[in-house]
Amino acid sequence: MENQKFSIEDISSEDINYFENLGIHQKLKHKFIEIYLDIWAKNVGYNSKRPLATVDFFDLYAASGWAYDQHTEDTWAGSALLAAKAFGEYPKGRLLLLNSYDQDSVKCQKQIEILRRSILNLENYPHVIEKTKIISSEIHKATDIALGELNRNFPSLWILDPYHPDQLPWEIVEKISSTVGDPYENRATGQIAQKKPELIINLMTSILQRNMDRKPELFSSAIGMSEEKWRPIYKKYERKYIEQGNEKCTRHVILDMYADRLSKLYNKEPIIALVNAAEGGVVYTMLLVTDNDAGYHMMRKKMDEWHNYKVYKWKSEAEVSVFKKHNPDQSDLKQWF
Ligand SMILES: C[S@@+](CC[C@H](N)C(=O)[O-])C[C@H]1O[C@@H](n2cnc3c(N)ncnc32)[C@H](O)[C@@H]1O
User: Fold this and answer.
1) Domains of the chain, first to last
2) Where are the alpha helices (DSSP H) in 3-138?
3) Which of helix, strand or coil describes residue 184?
4) Ligand 1 pocket, 161 CB below 6 A?
5) Which residues of 211-230 are buried (b: 16+ CB within 10 A; e: fewer)?
């Protein structure tokens, strides 16, 4: 947490039981989120000749705001506190809405309490406090509440980071992304445009991979199509990979299909990063979907700068970057933080 100006003094060892208990690789997930939030806080909003736009940030799976690795005893900011920091740095933040929900009511209350306390303790960003709303609802209700608060004619960034694919059904992604602003003329291009929420999605690809045959309904829910509809498309994509000599292609096919769905909702293809587990293998996939030209190009550039990741082409434009070719360990991570 160095350099982040968060106050952790009030955090007790009991509180740590309610932090996200993660492996060190999960830092890479937070790094992906942080990179884009940072671009937002420092660049995106400043690229227009017009007065700075307000921004709304939403984190619909906020948990306690903290993450913890029991092996290294390292503690770091989760998505909600990263969002709070970026929101605090951006001069015209309008709303920071955090949804912290857990089925276990004791855990839920405790996480909300830690989150609230952590926001109140943001040393350098006191104005964040008055602009933050913390809610606690299951994702369907939380989405409706959040959309009711959204200023849809101005930019917004949504972080969707569930544990499990069935906690983020496609209908949620579609509902958020189709809540657009009134049409306006983009002065740079002369074209009619509409503001559209920008999304950072954590797709739990490893769970989906394991369950394509055992529990196909998981993928149906994540991609918003019946198995009858997606299975033939899946087979078609799979054939393409097998013909190229890539037999183990389940993850590629899942990603291609998910990215296809997203790119139909946005003018740009998603930027995708795979995150490896410490013990090897990709655990989950981070996706950024946005129509925002400045944000999109800066994020691609940033990803390019982030060294030795593997890139493969998805369609003509999109790229998939593996954060680390090797299993991330502490020494590997040093160059990141
Ligand atoms: C992966 S954790 C979020 C971690 C957090 N984004 C971070 O970076 O620290 C997922 C959170 O979503 C919550 N959750 C699970 N199912 C949910 C649902 N149906 N609706 C809303 N939240 C849910 C979990 O209790 C957990 O707090």
Assistant:
1) 15-205+270-336 (3.40.50)
2) 26-42, 79-89, 105-120, 126-131
3) strand
4) yes
5) ebeeebebbbbbbbbeeeeb
d(Cα 24, Cα 90) in Å, to the nearest integer? 29
Q: Is the CB of 69 under 6 A from ligand 1?
A: no
For 261-318, the pLDDT digits (tens) are 999 999 888 998 887 765 566 678 889 999 988 888 888 888 777 654 455 555 644 5
Rg of the chain, C-alpha, whole Å: 19
66, 20 Cβ separation under 8 angstroms: yes
Query: What is the Å distance from ligand 1's center to 111 Cα?
Result: 11
| Each residue's pLDDT tens digit, 32-52 | 899 999 999 988 877 666 788
Q: Pick from 59, 82, 163 the residue to mutate for probing ligand 1's pocket: most ligand atoms within 8 Å of its CB.
A: 163
- Pocket lining: 320 vs ligand 1, CB cutoff 6 Å: no
Dihedral of CA 187/188/193/195: which sign?
negative
Q: pTM value? A: 0.91
